[in-house]
Amino acid sequence: MGHIRAVHEKIRNYQCNICFRSFSTGFNLKGHMQIHSDSRKYVCELCGEAFVHSGSLKVHKFTHSTTPLICSYCKNVFKNPITLKRHIRNVHLAPSMSICDICGKELKSTNMKNHLATHSTERPFVCKICNASYKVRKHLTDHNKTHKKNN
After folding, report:
1. Which of 22, 42, 73, 88 is the most exposed, fewest CB within 10 Å of its CB?
2. What angle (nearest 5°) sits at the alpha carbon of residue 6, between those of residues 55 and 83?
3. Domain that includes residue 112, residue range
4. Can you tell me where the transmembrane regions are (predicted)?
């Protein structure tokens, strides 16, 4: 049930009190909190740049690579295999499109859930600070950033 709530329903009940990002588990929030600390224990042996997470160091190391990664579709060049993979997925393997049954708008299938929320009167995403409510989680996340700026 945890997987369904976190991944498919995108329920994120754990929120960072510094930047207001939300997470599906306390474990993920705990890992995130490290970015707000001064601890940078993963150090690049080539240039000395330090990182909070080992994954960040791994991605950084690609900046030192002299072997370019070339997109087999368009020949664009990338240093990072993660960026190349994302490029291929988003540009060349475009997601399927769907048509909204309510308004007829055509959009990516992955965006349909959020789009359907715009037709609803339900506003399930509520700010814990001022009780402003939103139909889409991203709008609440954007709103929460305004509270950080006002402090």
Report:
1. 73
2. 35
3. 97-150
4. none
